[in-house]
Amino acid sequence: MKEADHFRENADNCLHLAERADGEPAFRRYMRMAQGWRALALQQDWLDGEIPPVERKEVA
What we know:
The chain is mainly alpha-helical. It is built from 2 helices and no strands.
């Protein structure tokens, strides 16, 4: 399993924890953690050459 897939699995676990969270602060915390894991997965995909880098538009 690729490292990015492990990160996505962690994100999914955080989403499940968010669904069962007791109260809004815990829910938001788990959602932020899930977003962080998803961002790490995307970055790892980029580092592994799975997705292209962001193209920059030239300013005229």
